[in-house]
Amino acid sequence: MSVTVRWAPSPTGRIHLGNARPALLNWFFARRHGGRYVLRMDDTDLARSTRDFADGIEEDLSWLGVTPDLLVRQSERTDLYDTARDRLIAAGRLYPCYETEDELDRKRSRARLLGKPPIYDRAALELSAEDRARLEAEGRKPHWRFKLDGRPVQFDDVIKGPQTVNTASMSDPVLIRADGSYLYTLPSVVDDIDLGITHVIRGEDHVSNTGTQIEIFEALGGPVPTFGHHNLLTDAQGQGFSKRLGSQSVRDFREEGYEPLAIATVATLTGTSLPVEPYASLDAIAERLDFSMVSHGSARFDPAELDGLNAKLLHAMPYEEAAPRLSSMGLEGEAIWLLLRENLVKFPDIAEWSKILVGPMEPVIAPEDQDFLALAKALLPPEPWDETTWGHWTETLKTTTGRKGKALFLPLRMALTGRHDGPELKSLLVLLGRKACLDRLP
């Protein structure tokens, strides 16, 4: 069977790490099985969905390395949903309801007081044609509910294993609002049938929805896809990511200078048995990640883990990959990259580190080191220099002054770079050159 998956974001904001998780897990599954990847914009919420947000989602996916095989927008597919609506009405599975939200709230409260589950009582099914006409004459417009079978719906989840959702304990879901607009459920099922979706991979918060959706698939005579529900990624405090709560977006991470592969790796491998470590590419992850590796427990995002992974990717990045980005910052030469990359957490950090080479830089000289540094200046070897120069110079200073360890090396580092930490001085010395070193030593 040819695999076709879909990721279906709502373009009501920028995507965050929690959104990136199913986007990438679907991508990995499609790549692993040589399948197709559909990006479906669930933009039926006309009040909140915007084209700018939709464009932003495409931009973020592209940055992460995901290239959909097909893009569809639900706002452009209304005729399909109307046809399905009419079929369900004709089959007696979709029925009009006239209760207001206040009336429904009162029904639910009453049920709770009586110790009953607060599910819809299907009172609308008892309305006669005359009752409906009277309500509509009063100005009421119906919302439409799908009549559930009310049975245990069983399915084999490729992540969580065998599942049962009993729709007898659920309210008949509203599929169409009183203004005629569609909620998520019906368009989603119709699209999955029309697009030939074979696998629906999404967060475990959708497990209970699956029973309802399977019943709609069956009512429309469509093939039921295979479902897989993964654990949800939470923030460092254990809270779910949310657009409405302003969770840090993928674009925010991009603008802060994180590598797309680091974001993709942390978003997907957190909460699995695969280690969160550098991989060569998304395809390398796809080759190794199997859904049996997805934990049934929580998946908590650790910012420190992201920083560590991002740093490792930069430390291993070849010059050829870094060169265009360096050039855009006015930095040229493989030697600079090889010297500074080991100190980077994020790529933009190199702008600050490069100041130790090109300045402006203020040497930091402790009063008690003045004489030592003056002697170091006098003993600075003549050029040409190579990576052995540092060792010869410091050995001469050690023999001459008796200094060693931190007392020997730290004053030299502070005078030459103005920092306590930094790249290897044996390599830095060569790039600085003798004139720059003389200028920085007192």
Automatic annotation (TrEMBL):
GO cellular component: cytoplasm
Subcellular localization: Cytoplasm
Cited PROSITE patterns: AA_TRNA_LIGASE_I (PS00178)
Aminoacyl-tRNA synthetase class I anticodon-binding domain segment(s): 335-441
Signal peptide: none
Motif 'KMSKS' region mapped to chain: 240-244
Swiss-Prot/TrEMBL GO biological process terms: glutamyl-tRNA aminoacylation
Residues that coordinate or bind ATP: K243
One of the record's GO molecular function terms: ATP binding
Record-annotated Glutamyl/glutaminyl-tRNA synthetase class Ib catalytic domain positions: 3-305
NCBIfam families: gltX_bact
Quaternary structure, from the entry: Monomer.
Free-text function comment from the UniProt entry: Catalyzes the attachment of glutamate to tRNA(Glu) in a two-step reaction: glutamate is first activated by ATP to form Glu-AMP and then transferred to the acceptor end of tRNA(Glu).
The protein's name: Glutamate--tRNA ligase
